[in-house]
Amino acid sequence: MKDLKMHVRKFQEEVIEYKHNRDLLAKLFFHSIKNEALKWYFQLIENSIDRYEDPILLFLHNFSYNIVEKVYFKDLYKIK
Fold it and tell me: Which 8-state DSSP code applies to residue 19?
């Protein structure tokens, strides 16, 4: 994935109607990824996803090879 932040923003836009159901959002995130990212997701420790932010932050941390800045979840909603 070339632009991780854009991927996350697109996901957030697609599921905006469920923004108040954070458990569901955490479970839906894996539907937005594929290939190596999906393999990585399924290798996470079972029940290690407790909050909606967890898979997204882990995803950004694991796949952001070229991102120099530190990414915080609150910053994800500022992406334009």
Answer: T
Around Cβ 59, how many Cβ atoms within 10 Å?
A: 23
Distance CA 80, CA 67 (A): 16
Residue with tokens 């915080």: 72
CB 4 within 8 A of CB 59: yes
Under 8 Å between Cβ of 30 and 55 = yes
The Cα 42–Cα 45 span in angstroms is 8
CB-based contact 41:62 (threshold 8 Å): no
3-state class of 21 per DSSP? Answer: coil
- pLDDT by 10s per residue, the chain, length 80: 458 888 889 999 999 999 888 888 888 888 898 888 888 888 876 667 777 777 788 888 888 765 556 667 777 777 76
